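ugh finaly. both done.
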Amino acid sequence: MTQYSKPREQAESAFTKVQSQLMARNRVIEEIDTMAQAREDKTSRLKNARLAREADDRTRATAALKSKRAIKP
């Protein structure tokens, strides 16, 4: 190991500390972004399923009304 002056060792130590904090921060941000994307995907999937179910319900209700009207005359 090469011997450096005391100020350089302190500077390198400070730099390493800041660098590791930055890397930890980036990992946390990436994890938050991943969770947010997963939540958005799930919300979109559930919304599409709900809309499809509502459309199916409307179709069934319309068919039921048409069959009731067809029976009356």
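ok and the 2nd:
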Amino acid sequence: MGYNHNERRFDMYCDVNLKNRIKRTKGQMQGVLDMMDQNHACMDIVIQLKAIRSSIDKAIGILTTENLKQAIFDTNNLSSKQVEDAINIIIKGI
């Protein structure tokens, strides 16, 4: 079961806050490379990499949640509150 390229696609949600989050993460990556060039301690680099991973995970969560909400709004007659309540139930169950 793979992705069907013929299926309807929705416009991707990507606001300025999400783009800024990704830009900050990009800057953190450059900082890690600089730390490596300057022979910083392994643990310091690991801490920064974990922060980067957390930032990326948060961006993925924002992007997928907002796009899921938009897809539901576009295909159903549900209120924003109903969709957000359903997503919160899913998130709490994970």
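summary for the 2nd one i guess: Residues 42-75 form the longest helix (34 residues).
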